[in-house]
Every structure is written in structure tokens, then in C-alpha cells.
Amino acid sequence: MVQVTSPAFKQNAARALADTGLQKALGKAKGAFLQRRAEAVARLPEFEALRDIGRDIKNHTLANLDFYLETYAANVERAGGTVHWCSTADEARAAVLAICRRAGARTVTKGKSMISEEISINDHLETHGIEPVETDLGEYIIQLRREHPSHIIAPAFHLNREDWEADFRRMHTDLDPNRVFNERRDILAEARTKLRSRFLAADVGITGANFLIAETGSSVIVTNEGNGDLTQTLPRVHIALASIEKVVPTLEDATSLLRLLARSATGQDFSVYTTFSTGARRPTDLDGPEEYHVVLIDNGRSNMIGSEFQDMLRCIRCAACMNHCPVYGATGGHAYGWVYPGPMGSVLTPSLVGVDKAAHLPNASTFCGKCESVCPVKIPLPNLMRHWREREFERHLTPAAMRRGLGLWAWFAKRPQAYRLATRAAIGGLRLLGRGRGAFRSLPLAGGWTAGRDLPVPEGGTFMARYAQQQRKR
Amino acid sequence: MSKDAILTAIRRGLKRGPLPADQRAMLDGRLATHPRHLIPARSRVPRPEQVALFIRNVEKEFGTVARVADATEIPAAIADYLAAQNLAPRFVLAPHPDLAALPWADRPLLEFEARRAEATDAVSVQHGFAAIAETGTLMLPSDAQRPTTLNILAETEIVVLRTSRIVGAYEEAWDTLRRERTDAVTGGFMPRNVMLVTGPSRSADIEQTLELGAHGPRRLHIVLVDDDPAAHGADDPAAPPAA
Q1: Which of A107, A194, A317, B156 has an alpha carbon within 20 to 30 A of A244's alpha carbon?
Q2: Of residues B34, B192, B214, nearest to A279 (C-beta)
Q3: The pLDDT of residue A418
Q4: What residues contact A340, with CB distance under 8 A and at least 6 apart?
């Protein structure tokens, strides 16, 4: 698996906040996603009702997941495809390598797939002498830079145009070094030209899957560039990588979820290419792969069924939660330290790599609730993060100072008289200390707060005192 | 085997064994009847408005549409479009009988071959199976008469579509596919590949700013043949709807 640096979230975040290039990229990109989503949602009056439907479709599927997976696999095989069931990332890597070797593959083109990041398939293929070529524009530059995606639908979210130009000059050494990139589209055109020959030469094409459809045995990909379709159409062998929770019962179910996906993700009414692949080339077909494989991956998800984290398996990977998250907006995706950043990653990463490694992530939230309010399938993300915090506390993963602090707070919280007395004393003390100024620049024991912002000097009484006063007035 | 391990783990989580026969039958029934969910009201409009909505949505997504009154005008419409775009009058044509039957001799300068597309083809002319007004989306199922490569390899894709094939919502297009197609391999209706195409290819991966012309076609042009009397508005049947 991709190396997990989530235990260093605090250091990662501090570094991200000081990274001016990253901050510039985040500043530019963030607003665009929010505005486009809001406009797309406003154009569809039924959007809220569709969110309930999306949630219900996914819940129904998860409650019968064994049935739908078996039905799906049977229909893939009826259409001449092969399903490889894989419990772990290791098994999935071995399955993909075996297919590539049987095909005598030298190069493999790839469509964008987060599960392929999760199982680190690129490293595995490279180690065994097979060259993987990322073909999504964002993934392409990420591969040139030997980085990982910082966002689940916009892998190069952390980069500025200057980075693109510099990397293309550095890597495309066969082109005129003095060429000029006047527009973003010049960068795009260069990538198109460069990748065209790779599409045509590849022996195997690997894509992910946004949905699997039990009714028909289809895998669905959603793209704007068309790279996914070139990847899965031109080579002799197509491998679709998919995790088990991608299955839905019927085309109608997938259609309802597709109405939510693009609007929540890029703010489009529909993506440019939504493609349903069902089995291998038919005898009379003039194109398409001769072999069609689905590598169906569990990698920890079946353990989430029946747990308090089952709701997370509804996720359709639209990225609305991270686009709207103030923490993601400040640190970017790499700080989260594994494949999935943002609120969905803060819930999923502990489930998949272990809460001992990912303990910081459920705490990297202000609980503002925006993620839940925009989630197209209504995943209660803050609640799920809270469950992780509880588990951390139970397993003594919470730092000692924090445990003591929480213990102290709990003692007072259970004794209202003492609590009110203490808050009254604290407010009085602070007011005395802060006499003559509006805010504290620094305060003993509160360095964690005042390092980043001022603390206002309290005005008036405690909440309870004012509440009592209001009640008396009535 | 991993299949059993995965299914067992799922059932353990669900706190049950394999589904009993009556529940399986219920789920099989749901698959067989594939019930529709909420369909947005925007496409539930009279035929002329549905066609207008389709055209409006194609144009919103940077596609273009030319309407012709009769199929015999298609070769001229294609020749005119290519000339207007400064493109050579050469293309790969979908090997579909409807397209083969067109009066191509009217435009002797047009050169074409009916086959799958290759990387050297600059222009493709595809046969539209159906289209969805809700988002201006084309449904292009693969078969011997409609190769997938025509949708992805050429820089310019032209799709010939009849107005009678425009439906309101995706669900209606799926039902058209269910009704009209039988797959030789599965006995079901799904062909190897179904592409839903909404406008020409694009990317927003550079600074989240949209640019047209990624790996698929840079241009998507639809030649719309008016074969559906019900699709005409009452006052001016021939006039293309306002964008």
C-alpha cells in the first residue's frame, strides 16, 4: 500500500500552511468548485429529494451486498468477462500482474482510479518490468513528479500553472526547449500529443469504476477527458479495478446516483463521458478489448459492514466534502498522509489502515458540518469522525495531556454547580487580566490558541448567568 | 477462496447467512422490474420543448447542432460543416445501413470509408442511437454498425441523429435499449459498451479551469434530422428553437 504518513498530520499540516505555492493553488481552486456546485444544484429543484434517494439506494444495496455482488459477477461472466475476487491489496496486485504477464504486456495505460492508488499498482507493475502510463491529465503530471494525488477527483489540485510548464519542459526533452505556453490549452495540447502514441501502443488498459451494475454486469466510468475510454477501448485487454461497495442493483439506480455525482463533484449537470462496459468484444464488433477483467477488491471494507462505519460505504467519491472543508482548504490533500484526504478520508483511512496510524485525521475537523450538508448520499461524516474519536479514547490513543484535559472537563460537566462557579471565576479572571484591551495576543496555557489568532476578552457574564436573566424577564 | 471469504465477512457483518429463497426472489423481482426513481421535471415537457431542451443543453456543453428537414440533406450538411471548420472533406463513417443509404453522390467531394476509426482519422461520422434531452446527452451503444472508436479517436465527431430518437430522461433511453437490442452473447440487451456523451472532451485539471480539447474529440457536431412531426412547434415548425 501507499506509505501512510497520517501519523505526522500535525507536521504535514504545519508544512502545508507555510507552503506559499500550495496556498496559492488552494486559494485559486477552492472557490471554483463551490460556486459551480451551488449553481448546478440550483438548476435542479429535485436535488434534495435525489439525495434521499441516493442514500436509500446505497443502503438497500449494502443490506444485500452479498446477493448483489454474486449477481453482478454472474452477469460479468455471462458477457465473457472474468471477475477476480481479492480480499487484500496484495491479492489485487498479484491478480493484475498475472493478467498483464499473460498478455505479454510491456506498457499499460491507466484511467484515473483511486483504488489503484490504494493498492499501489503502479509501483508493483514497475518493479516487475511493466510500464504504467497515467493518462488523466492531472494523474499524468502527478506521475511525472512522482507524487500522489492531493484530491480524489482533481489529482493536481495543489499545482499552479507554472509547475505544469516547468515539469513539461523538464520531462518532454524531445520538444523545443524554447517553446512558449501562452495558454492553459497549450499545456493540454502537449499532453494530448504526448499521450496519443501511448494509448495506441498499450497492451493493457486499466481503469477504475464509479459503479458496478448487478442487473447487467457492467462497470461504469465517468470522465471528461475521454482518456478513460481510450484506455479501455484500444488495448487488447481491459482491467477494471473496483471495490466491493461500488455495486448497485440496476441501471435506474445508477442513473439516479449519476444525477448526483457530477453536480456534487465538478458542478456539471453530467460528465462528458459516462461509459458502461459489459464483457469482452462481441464476435461481430469492430473494436473493443478481447479480454475484460474485473478485479473486485475488499481490502478492509467488509469489516465496515454492520459496524458504526457502514454508512461510509455509501460514498460515491464526488469530493464535495473536501471541496467544502475548511481544514482541507487550509492544508490541501497531502497533509492527510494517505490516499483519501478531506472528511471522507478522515473516516475511511482509519477504517482501512487502522486507527492507530490515522488517529489524527478524525480530529482534523472543526465539526462545522458542511461536509455532511453537501454529501450527495447524506453520510453523517462528523458523527462518524466522533465515533473514531471515541474509539481512540477507549484504546488510549489520545495524547495524555488531552485525556487529562477531557477528564477535568468531564468532572466539571457532571457537576453543574462547580461548572458554573468555575466558568464565572475564569471569565472574571480573564476580564481582570484583559482590562483596557479588546483581545489577548498571548496567554499562559493557551499558546496553542494564541499562536494562530487572538483571544477576545470576555464581555458580560457567563452564558448561564445571561440565560437565567432572560428567563426572569419573561 | 477469496470470494467465499469476502461473502462470509459481509454476512457476518449483516448478522445473517445467505439470503433465504423468498428474499432472493424479492430482490430478483426488483432487478427484473428495475423500478424508476424520481425523474426531474425539466424533461417532462411536450415534444417540441423536449427537442428544444436537448439542443439548448448540447450547446450549453459546447456542442453544436444543425437541423435538416430530411435525411437526403445530411451529406450537404456534413460537407458545409467541414468547410466552415476548415476541415478536409474526409471522414470515417459508421457502417450503419441508414448512413450507407444516404445520397452521398450528391456531394462527390466527400471522401469516406465505412469501418472502425484509426488514429489517423481526423473526422468521424457516427450514428446516434438515442439522445437525452435532460442534459443534452447522446446514447451511443457499440455494435458492428456503431464502433466505439468513432466516439473517441477523431478530433471532430459528427453524430447523425433523428429527432424521433430524442427522449426526455435517461430512463427512457435505457428502456429503448432494452426494447430494441438483443445481445448475441448474453441474450440480454447490453452491448459491450454504451457511451453517454455530453459535449466535446475537456479537462479542468490545470488550476481547475475548464479547457476544451482533451484526449477525445475537440468538436462534437450533431446533424439533427426532423423525422418526428410531433416534435414541431405549432407556430413555426421549421424554425430551430432559440438557444
Answers
A1: A107
A2: B192
A3: 92
A4: A114, A152, A348, A349
Find, in chain B, the residue whose alpha carbon is nearest to that of A192. Answer: B215
Residues of B in contact with A219 (CB under 8 A): none
Q: What CA–CA distances, in Å, run from A265 to A4, A269, A280, B5?
A: 26, 10, 30, 34
Instruction: Write the residue in B117, B135, B215 that is nearest to A269 by C-beta.
Output: B135
- B194·A63 Cβ contact <8 A: no
Listed by number, the residues of chain B in 89-118 with a beta carbon closer than 8 Å to a beta carbon of chain A are 95, 115-117
CB A70 within 8 A of CB A61: no
State whether residue B52 sits within 8 Å of chain A by CB: no
User: Tell me, which fold does domain B42-231 have in CATH?
Assistant: Rossmann fold (3.40.50)
Half-sphere exposure of A47 (CA within 13 A, CB side): 20
Rounded-to-5 percentages of helix, strand, coil across chain A? 55, 10, 35
pLDDT at A200: 96
| Dist. CA B76–CA A381, nearest whole Å | 57
3-state secondary structure of B215: coil
Domain map (residue ranges) of chain B: 3-33, 42-231
Q: Which residues of chain B have pLDDT under 50?
A: 235-243
Contact A155 B205 (CB under 8 A): yes
Instruction: Report yes or no: A362 and A340 within 8 Å, Cβ to Cβ.
Output: no
Nearest Cα residue in chain A from B200: A272
Instruction: Look up cell 449483516; give the residue.
Output: B14
- In the numeric block, the cell 451551488 is attached to A38
For residue range B142-178, list pLDDT tens digits in order: 999 999 999 999 999 999 999 999 999 999 999 999 9
Burial A197-220, CB ≥16 within 10 A → b, else e: ebbeebbbbbbbbbbbbbbbbbbb
Measured distance CA(A304)–CA(A243) in Å, rounded: 13
| Nearest-10 crossing angle of helices A47-63, A65-78 | 90
For residue A221, how many C-alpha atoms fall within 13 Å in the half-sphere facing its CB?
31
Reported ipTM: the value is: 0.95
- Percent of chain B clearing pLDDT 70 (strictly above): 95
Q: How far apart are CA A109 and CA A131, in angstroms?
A: 8
Residues from chain B contacting residue A306 (CB–CB below 8 Å)? 12-15
B234 reaches A (C-beta below 8 A): no
- The one-letter code for the residue type at A118 is E
What number of other Cβ atoms are within 10 A of residue A176's Cβ? 8
Return d(Cα B96, Cα B115) in angstroms, integer.
Answer: 10
pLDDT given at position A1: 54
| Separation between Cα atoms, residue A170 and residue A186, nearest integer Å | 16
Residue range A183-225, pLDDT digits in tens:
999 999 999 999 999 999 999 999 999 999 999 999 999 999 9
At B17, the amino acid letter reads G
Q: Compare CB distances from A218 to B5, B143, B190 and report the shortest one's residue.
A: B190
The low-confidence residues of chain A, meaning pLDDT below 70, are 1-2
Query: How does pLDDT run across B211-238, given as a tens digit for each residue?
Result: 999 999 999 999 999 998 888 765 444 4
* Angstrom distance (rounded) from CA A143 to CA A149: 9
Contacts with A284 from chain B: Cβ below 8 Å: 143-144, 184
Instruction: Compare all CA atoms of chain A with the CA of B206 and give the residue at the minimum distance.
Output: A161
pLDDT at B242: 42
Tell me if A32 and B208 make a contact (CB, 8 A cut-off).
Answer: yes
Sheet arrangement for strand B219-225: B64-68, B219-225, B156-162, B123-127, B90-93, B111-114
A341/A328 Cα distance (integer angstroms): 8
Cβ-nearest to B215 among A185, A227, A255: A227
